[in-house]
Structure formats: structure tokens, C-alpha cells
């Protein structure tokens, strides 16, 4: 009987698991086909042109648009139904971030449309259709994620799995296309910078797939081409964010949610003054370094070397501070005895996986730089600063990942009413009286009644009781005094423990605030074009110019996303602590 009763549940899980496996394999094959098509275009494979690649991407976007419209229409018809929501998915910072990047992506699409109009005589029609389709796709996708990122789909689950995974890998292919296009745009500019540093022996035939005709309006063409170059990083980040949010939606399909009370954790500036001050100092100095770097790099050999040296010294100092702060936080965690929350949570699991996965991009670049320093025959003076910088990048992310992952898995402290506001219960002649007083006032004896009675608070002691029996007055007074001494010792121990705990929490909040601002600071340089991995020169000598540029352009988006994702995770840690 038990086997028969359990068999339907077990059998019912097979279709759902099969749908998950089939949809994931569909998405992987979709991505691999697009990846090979992108690679074939990049290497000028016979019979493959850019129009073929864009046609493939347009088809994928149109299919996703149809699915999103169907989902939105179905949701409107069922809006009265109560649906389960994943409160951890689709955080507000994530929605705001993807909206910002989407707006910039729309500007990029408008630049591409203008670029196509100016070169329409020699460009394929697909290059004009692609930005229009992409703009519509961006607008509808952002709206979809704002409204339905938290959904837990319980109907049409097989169809929805294929629709969501199609959307995930469509965004990944659009990200890949953006990365490759940006890398081709950067070849000429970075070669010129390296020549100013004295690396004139780098020779390569550049090919950026430029149109084979003249522009109708030279000024506008220059603006559009340069604008496209500067806006691509934001487009790349947009598609990474969209992929992560859609992946969480895919993992939540058919999930059974346990309804727990959610505690709001608002951000407060109280108690994090030290961390904020040091973090703002780092942020301000980083902005100044980036401005000077972008002005000086490429102007002359001396100015370029000074810019690189300045960047490395500043980054080494900041990374060393971050390592120290992370180690202190981990030591505090080792001194605490708090259980971890191991409940099933796809959003939290993805956060941890993204921290480690995107950190691998920086680790790849750092190990490449270390290998180049070891293998290079000539070492300009400024290149030696790259060695401690690369080592600290590896160590810092390792420590910070441990701190963030442990923090988001630690159980959140609930509001302790016995610490903030205590209820004094006095029992007098069978009546109960409830008073409110702060703990310090009670402990210092300032909560005494007007009649000279000092209410007792802990361990169920009864205060203010009148003793009508004259013969037992002395015994009861002696017993009450002994109880008062014991309670005072217990209260003092309780107060001391909470004082130590509060001090630890204050230190952790300051560390989280400091690391939050430091990650924002380290996000700024690569996001705005300050990338010494391009300008150092040694890596290009050892690995080759174009291979290293492609590696950097593949790894750099992960590195940029890591800093932004870490900042958001640290913001959440600060609220929880």
C-alpha cells in the first residue's frame, strides 16, 4: 500500500525531470550552433557572412518575442489567480541595473541604425533589421523581467521550460556577438598604444570588417562608429544580467515553495561610518586615477609608463586593504557559533555560482599576466608592478568569495525584543501590570516605582509583592536579596554577551560597507576603458597580439560583472548583518 501510494508522486516527477533535461540540451545545441556560426564569420570561413549570423540571431529573438507575448497574454487572463513567488529572485537592484544597461543598449541600437543608413549602399539589409529587432526585444524583455522574474510557473511547465531556456541562450549568443564585435573594434587602438610604449615589433594584419563604400555623412559616421565602440560594454553587461534572471526563472519552474515569513532588511547608515569613510576615500581616489590614466595613456612612452605605474600602485594598495578586511571578517565568523541556512534557494545558489564563475575571468587574466612576466625576455620597470597586482587579484577574490557566500548562507538574526525593548511584568495581588523600559534603565535601577519598589525582570522573579505575614518578613527579604544578586550577575553576563555580539556585528557591517564601495571603485576602471591588461604589452609579446586581445575581451565582461555582482551581494550582506 505504501509503495502504491507513493508511486504517483514518483511517476509524476519523471515528466518534469525529462522536460528539464530536454530543454537544457535544446538550449546548449542552440548556443553551440550560434557559437560556431559566430566563429566562422570571425575567421572568414567560406560561404559564411555577417548576414548569415545576424539572420540566425534575428530568428532567435523573434521566437523569444513570440513566447514572451504568449506568456504575457496568458498572465493577463489569469491575473486574478494567486501565484507563488520566489521572493529571493529578481531583486530590485538587479532590475534597476538591467534597466540602466537596457537604456544604454537602446542608444547603441539607434547608433547602429544610423550607421546602417549612412552605409546603406554597401551593407546587407540584415544589418538594418538586426538593431530594430534587438531594440524591440530589449524593451519587451525588460518589461517581462520586471513583471515576472519572481514567478514560479506551475502550468504548461514543459512548454515554458523550452521558452525560458531559449531566452537564456539567446541572450548568451547576443553577449558572445557583442564581445567579438567589441574585440575587433579595439585592435587598432590598442596597437597604437603599445607602439608608444616601444613594442613596435608587434605585427598583425587587422580586419574589422569595415564597409567597402564611402559614408554619406562623414561627421555622423564618425560619431556613430565611436559611440558604438564605447557603448558595447553596457550591452554586454545587459545580456549577462538578462541571462542570469531568466536562468533563475527556469530553475523555479515547477518548484514547491515553503511559505516563510520574510523579514525586511532595510539599509541603514547607522554604525557604518568608518567603513563608509574609508570606502569613499577609495572611490574618490579611483575616479581620479582613472581620469589621469585615460588622459596620459598613449600620449608618449614616459606618460604611458607613469600612468601604468600609478594604476598598479593604487590597485595594489586597495586590494591589500580589501584582503585584510576580508580576513578580519572571516575570523569573526570563526569566533561565532551560528547555524547556516541550507534550505533550497535557486537565487542564492546562483549568486554563489556567479561569484565563483565570474571570478574565473579575472583569475584567467591574472595567471596570464604572471606567466607573461615569468616568460618574457625583457622586463620594463613598470611591468614588475603587475606581478603583485595579479597575485592580489587572485587572493582578494578568493577571500571575498568566502566572506560573501558564508554571509548569504548564515541565518538572519530575528528582532530580539528582550534586547531592544523589554516587558516588565509585575504581579501584585493577583493582577498583572505591563511596563516598557529600556534594558539600561532597568539595569541601572532607574525603573523603580514611585513607592520605592524596584521591579524584577528576569527568570520569572516576582517583585513588589506585599508580605502580610510579619513573622516571615525577614526570611523572604533574605531570599529576595539572594535572588536579586543572582539575577544581577545573570543580567550582567547577558548584557556583556550582547555587547560583544553587537560590537562584532558593527565591525562586520563596516567591513561590508567598505568592501561594497571598494568593489564599486574597482568596477569603474574596466567599465570606462582603463584596462592595463591591454596596455601593459608583455602579454601581447608572449601570447600574440590578437589571441591575447580575444582572451581579454572574453574574460573582461566576467570581471566587470563580478565587481557589480559582488557590490550588490555585499549590500545585501550589510542589510542582513
Automatic annotation (TrEMBL):
UniProt key word Oxidoreductase: no
Annotated signal peptide: none
Transmembrane segments: 26-47, 53-72, 93-117, 129-147, 229-250, 270-295, 307-334, 354-376, 507-529, 541-562
Keywords: Cell membrane, Hydrogen ion transport, Ion channel, Ion transport, Membrane, Transmembrane, Transmembrane helix, Transport
Cellular location(s): Cell membrane
The family this protein is said to belong to: Belongs to the otopetrin family.
Name the UniProt record assigns to this protein: OTOP1 protein
Gene this chain is encoded by: Otop1
Amino acid at each position: 500500500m505504501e509503495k502504491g501510494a507513493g508511486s504517483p508522486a514518483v511517476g509524476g516527477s519523471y515528466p518534469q525531470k525529462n522536460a528539464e533535461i530536454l530543454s537544457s540540451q535544446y538550449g546548449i545545441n542552440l548556443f553551440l550552433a550560434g557559437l560556431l556560426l559566430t566563429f566562422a564569420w570571425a575567421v572568414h570561413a567560406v560561404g559564411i557572412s555577417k548576414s548569415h549570423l545576424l539572420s540566425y540571431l534575428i530568428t532567435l529573438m523573434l521566437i523569444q518575442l513570440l513566447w514572451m507575448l504568449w506568456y504575457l497574454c496568458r498572465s493577463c487572463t489569469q491575473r486574478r489567480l494567486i501565484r507563488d513567488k520566489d521572493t529571493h529572485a529578481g531583486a530590485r537592484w538587479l532590475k534597476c541595473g538591467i534597466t540602466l544597461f537596457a537604456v544604454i543598449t537602446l542608444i547603441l541600437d539607434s547608433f547602429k541604425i544610423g550607421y546602417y543608413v549612412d552605409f546603406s549602399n554597401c551593407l546587407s539589409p540584415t544589418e538594418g533589421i538586426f538593431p530594430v529587432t534587438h531594440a524591440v526585444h530589449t524593451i519587451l524583455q525588460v518589461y517581462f523581467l520586471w513583471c515576472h522574474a519572481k514567478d514560479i510557473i506551475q502550468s504548461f511547465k514543459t512548454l515554458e521550460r523550452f521558452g525560458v531556456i531559449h531566452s537564456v541562450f539567446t541572450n548568451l549568443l547576443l553577449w558572445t556577438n557583442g564581445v567579438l564585435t567589441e574585440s575587433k573594434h579595439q585592435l587598432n587602438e590598442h596597437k597604437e598604444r603599445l607602439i608608444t610604449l616601444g613594442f613596435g615589433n608587434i605585427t598583425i594584419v587587422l580586419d574589422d570588417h569595415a564597409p567597402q563604400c564611402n559614408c554619406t555623412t562623414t561627421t555622423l559616421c564618425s560619431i556613430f562608429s565611436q559611440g558604438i565602440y564605447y557603448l558595447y560594454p553596457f550591452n554586454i553587461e545587459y545580456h549577462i544580467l538578462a541571462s542570469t534572471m531568466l536562468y533563475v526563472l527556469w530553475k523555479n519552474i515547477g518548484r514547491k515553495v515553503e511559505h516563510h515569513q520574510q523579514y525586511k532588511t532595510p539599509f541603514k547608515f547607522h554604525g557604518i561610518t568608518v567603513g563608509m569613510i574609508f570606502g569613499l576615500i577609495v572611490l574618490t581616489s579611483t575616479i581620479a586615477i582613472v581620469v589621469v590614466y585615460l588622459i596620459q595613456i598613449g600620449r608618449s612612452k614616459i606618460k604611458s609608463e607613469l600612468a601604468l605605474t600609478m594604476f598598479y600602485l593604487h590597485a595594489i594598495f586597495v586590494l591589500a586593504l580589501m584582503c585584510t578586511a576580508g580576513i578580519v571578517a572571516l575570523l569573526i565568523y570563526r569566533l561565532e557559533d551560528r547555524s547556516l541556512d541550507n534550505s533550497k534557494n535557486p537565487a542564492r545558489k546562483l549568486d554563489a555560482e556567479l561569484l565563483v564563475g565570474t571570478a574565473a575571468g579575472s583569475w584567467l587574466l591574472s595567471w596570464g599576466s604572471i606567466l607573461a612576466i615569468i616568460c618574457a625576455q625583457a622586463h620594463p620597470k613598470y611591468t614588475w608592478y603587475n606581478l603583485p597586482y595579479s597575485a592580489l587579484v587572485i587572493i582578494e577574490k578568493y577571500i571575498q568569495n568566502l566572506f560573501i557566500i558564508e554571509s548569504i548562507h548564515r541565518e538572519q538574526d530575528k528582532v530580539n525584543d528582550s534586547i531592544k525593548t523589554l516587558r516588565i511584568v509585575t504581579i501584585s495581588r493577583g493582577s498583572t501590570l505591563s511596563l516598557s523600559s529600556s534594558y539600561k534603565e532597568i539595569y541601572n535601577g532607574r525603573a523603580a516605582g514611585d513607592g520605592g519598589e524596584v521591579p524584577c525582570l528576569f527568570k520569572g522573579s516576582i517583585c513588589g509583592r506585599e508580605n502580610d505575614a510579619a513573622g516571615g518578613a525577614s526570611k523572604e527579604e533574605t531570599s529576595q536579596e539572594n535572588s536579586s544578586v543572582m539575577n544581577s550577575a545573570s543580567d550582567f553576563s547577558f548584557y556583556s554577551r550582547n555587547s560583544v555580539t553587537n560590537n562584532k556585528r558593527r565591525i562586520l557591517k563596516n567591513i561590508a560597507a567598505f568592501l561594497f564601495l571598494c568593489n564599486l571603485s574597482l568596477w569603474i576602471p574596466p567599465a570606462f576603458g582603463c584596462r592595463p591588461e591591454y596596455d601593459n604589452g608583455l602579454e601581447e609579446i608572449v601570447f600574440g597580439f590578437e589571441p591575447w586581445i580575444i582572451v581579454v575581451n572574453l574574460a573582461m565582461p566576467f570581471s566587470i560583472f563580478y565587481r557589480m555582482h559582488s557590490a550588490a551581494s555585499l549590500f545585501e550582506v550589510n542589510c542582513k548583518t
